[in-house]
Write a structure and sequence with these properties.
Layout (H helix, E strand, L loop, with lengths): L1 H10 L6 H9 L4 H12 L5 H20 L2 E4 L18 E6 L8 E6 L5 H16 L3 E4 L5 H11 L4 E4 L13 H10 L1 E4 L11 H11 L3 E5 L6 H11 L3 E5 L9 H8 L3 E2 L3 H7 L31 E2 H8 L3 H13 L3 E4 L3 E4 L5
Parallel strand pairs: 3-4, 3-7, 4-5, 5-6, 7-8, 8-9
Antiparallel strand pairs: 1-2, 2-6, 10-12, 11-12
Length: 354
């Protein structure tokens, strides 16, 4: 509990401190010590600020418990491994619904809030087709493309994840409260913001890094030149994720942002097959999970020692792969039962007895 409270208190620091906190935690500094140091750096006039942060964190944890919200601290094995690869992962991910959904292979679908009927149709169809092939669909529960993507995934009987710019008990927009409850049934609604946090304009650009961070690729469906979806695309590029875009009508100007992505090298998407091909999944016959067990001489397995957890940076150094390219391989090995995840985004090889 103490570790959770320390990490929850860290999440209450202003956002510029989050990357410093992540760097310190990765270096092995205890969360309580990081909190004391960063709180003192921000308010050097006394310990009252740290005490207030801890009190607010305790209140947030209690509120979550009462509301059935699950806090997943970054050093917990339940924390999504994909997020551990980004520069400033949330210290705690507050979760409604099924936390297991956060470990699925995922693709983000984002776009305009004031979407055209064409964009809504494309987003829903893409999400449906990708979800039916076993991919989770990540988006932001906003009006327009986001909600169409969530609905398309659920219509296929698939998994979808909504990332909020508010606490998970403060659904925004309010008319999507029912949609959020539907997502809870097979997917997850998540936020880095403590329960009770109301939506605010500066939270939404921050949450975009989580949308891309949870995903292997980001697909932009209709975005103008100032769309928040372009922030998500930029986060994806910084995180080593693939960026794809759907072409649209050149006459109305609604899709100039997505067309700019295409000019800059984003992969053009006309169907789910384009996304699957970009992810190297097109040859799997409709499944995102291989049926065969991994070979004992798999080069990624060779980088792991049974019983000794290794983090992504260490495995990347041994394998020669970037963390972003390595992660899908590790998730495949986990699905096949060859490795397991440990706390803090680490993985351990499972010893075989026969």
């Amino acid at each position: 509990m103490n570790g959770l409270l320390d990490l929850a208190a860290l999440s209450l620091l202003p956002s510029p401190a989050w990357r410093h906190a992540a760097d310190a935690l990765r270096a092995g500094e205890p969360a309580g010590a990081v909190l004391t140091r960063l709180a003192a750096a921000r308010r050097p006039d006394g310990p009252d600020y740290e005490r207030a942060l801890r009190a607010d964190a305790a209140h947030a944890v209690a509120r979550a418990r009462e509301a059935g919200i699950t806090p997943i601290p970054w050093n917990d094995a339940a924390y999504p491994a994909a997020l551990t690869t980004i520069a400033d992962p949330p210290a705690v991910l507050w979760t409604r619904g099924r936390a297991a959904a956060l470990h699925a292979h995922a693709v983000a679908i984002v776009g305009s809030r004031a979407a055209s009927p064409y964009a809504l149709s494309v987003a829903e169809q893409l999400a449906h087709d990708l979800a039916s092939r076993g991919l989770a669909i990540v988006s932001g529960l906003a009006r327009g493309v986001d909600s169409a993507a969530h609905r398309g995934a659920m219509a296929a009987g698939g998994v979808t994840i909504a990332v909020l710019g508010s606490g998970v008990d403060r659904i925004y927009p309010a008319e999507h409260a029912r949609l959020a409850r539907q997502i809870d049934e097979s997917g997850a609604v998540v936020s880095e913001l403590v329960p009770g946090t109301p939506p605010a304009p500066f939270f939404f650009p921050l949450r975009n890094r989580i949308i891309s961070g949870l995903s292997r690729a980001v697909v932009v469906v209709e975005a103008n030149e100032k769309s928040g979806s372009l922030i998500t695309a930029r986060c994806a590029l910084e995180q080593g994720r693939d960026v794809l875009a759907v072409p649209g009508n050149i006459l109305n100007g609604r899709n100039r942002g997505a067309h700019a992505l295409l000019r800059d090298g984003a992969t053009l998407v006309e169907s789910a097959d384009d996304v699957l091909e970009e992810l190297g999944m097109a040859a799997r016959g409709g499944s995102t999970r291989g049926d065969a067990a991994p070979a004992a001489d798999d080069p990624i397995l060779a980088c792991l020692t049974p019983g000794e957890p290794s983090d992504l940076d260490a495995i990347a150094a041994r394998s020669g792969l970037s963390a972003a390219r390595l992660l899908p391989r590790l998730l495949d090995l986990e699905l096949r039962g060859a490795i397991a995840r440990a706390g803090g985004g680490r993985f351990v090889r499972i010893a075989r007895t026969c």
